[in-house]
Design a protein that fits this description.
Length: 250
């Protein structure tokens, strides 16, 4: 398998035809998968925003005050409002905002970015990244994964995850297949879109590199069952359940 960045993409602006820009810069081969950073999908979809666009509610003010009291860092209540607007639910309000986005992804600050956003304060995630992936995929004729850099519980550091995908199952089901001893695998469902997103993120880089699109070549899903499930449902998520009842104590 090979993973390489699409070189030469410009700074993406609202209304840009991202599929056309990618198609001009790379020739796809049979079996390729395109991973593309949510940052540029958001820019093309006009998801830049300014703090002044958000009027802080009482709840946003209270959240900002509490975080400020705990961390000592000044927190803009309008930023808290932006996160509230982008979320179905906050699982934690302090010392940071852990949000369930409207499309089901759970991440700090609802994935709102403050870097790589020239000319604006904020960049919101695409409204429906799988729908964005579908449009790109249909125009380009390859499966598409929309990625974001995200933290994870239990471990330091961030890595790429899939926030939307089209043309590829989210995971590959190894259950019922044999290990090296012939023992049947009982639980392994491999979240391949996340693994490809992490691979792509490694190639795309995090700073000013300017390579938000990565082609995965010669990787095969293989002969396995697939599943489209990636975001746990509420009933199936004991950590989400536990966090609802948790609150930060100084
Ligand atoms: P995120 O992981 O989706 O939040 O995106 P990042 O901000 O980490 O950016 C991923 C990669 O895309 C980095 O290499 C950035 O330099 C690059 N990038 C971000 N915005 C643009 C853009 O508008 N044009 C180009 N060519 N690259 C960009
Ligand atoms: Mn991001
Ligand atoms: Mn990133």
């Amino acid at each position: 398998m090979e993973a390489f960045a699409v070189e030469g993409l410009p700074e993406i602006r609202e209304g840009d035809d991202l599929a056309a820009l990618v198609a001009d810069a790379v020739e796809f081969a049979e079996g390729d998968v395109l991973c593309i950073a949510s940052t540029v999908v958001s820019k093309a979809e006009g998801r830049k925003a300014d703090l002044a666009d958000f009027e802080a509610s009482d709840r946003a003010e209270a959240i900002a005050d509490r975080i400020e009291a705990i961390t000592g860092d000044e927190k803009d209540p309008r930023f808290a409002q932006a996160v509230l607007d982008e979320s179905e639910e906050l699982l934690t309000e302090s010392p940071f905002l852990l949000a369930v986005t409207h499309f089901g992804h759970i991440t700090v600050n609802a994935g709102i970015d403050r870097s790589n956003v020239p000319g604006a304060d904020l960049l919101l995630l695409p409204e429906d990244p799988s729908e964005s992936a579908r449009r790109l995929s249909e125009e380009l004729g390859v499966p598409v994964i929309v990625t974001d850099t995200s933290g994870r519980p239990f471990r330091y550091g961030q890595r790429g995850v899939a926030v939307g995908w089209h043309g590829i199952p989210a995971s590959r089901d190894w259950r019922g297949e044999a290990d090296r001893d012939g023992r049947e695998l009982g639980v392994t469902v491999q979240a391949v879109v996340d693994e490809l997103a992490a691979t792509a993120n490694l190639v795309a880089g995090e700073g000013g590199g300017g390579t938000p699109a990565v082609v995965i070549r010669d990787w095969e899903f293989g002969d396995h069952d697939g599943s489209q499930n990636l975001f746990r449902t509420e009933e199936d998520d004991i950590v989400r359940e536990a966090l609802r009842d948790w609150s930060f104590e100084e």
